[in-house]
Amino acid sequence: MRPRLLLATRNRAKIREYSLLLQEAPLDLIDLEAEGIEGEVVETGATLRDNAVLKATGYGVGEEYLVLADDSGLEVDALGGEPGPLSARYAGESASDAQRIDLLLSRLAGVPWERRVACFRAVVAIARKSRLVCVCDGFCEGVITLEPRGTQGFGYDPVFYLPELGRTMAELSIEEKNRVSHRGRATAEAVRFLREYVKEG
Hints:
The chain has 201 residues and is of the alpha+beta class. 29% of the residues lie in helices and 26% in strands. It has a single domain (4-200), classed as Maf protein, CATH 3.90.950.10. The mean pLDDT is 94.
């Protein structure tokens, strides 16, 4: 029987991405809903790494399966690195993706294209029985557009433009996005770790 890996997120779009990103990992994927895990690990950390570690070590306490959690954020140079770790809560706890994007664009009103440089960052943490076993980082650089473009992806994808591709994240297929995204890069490193970890037993 293959070991199991719990995805510590309730975001269905993120789970779909991980189901592709982790195809080469020698584990069976499970999620919080399928396992009947209720409650939330509150993201009280000051950094993306803090929050990823909190979730990885906070879910599946005492269980044999591995737990993978991530935290990701958008850092905009012209806003001093905002929204950063608060990306998901930038416009309030219950705000929609569209509302967060509207707030971001309003704060960048009047900022010229050459100063709208931004970076997506992701931290993936893996734990077992609440003990941290691995942390991986990934980043992707781009520019914040003047208005949303594309219908794929989620979060800030419609306003994150990739100059080398000439499209926003939301204009890429999920396969294209996974090859270049911050989460894709962090997870590729995590897959390499998981292969060795499972091999060593």
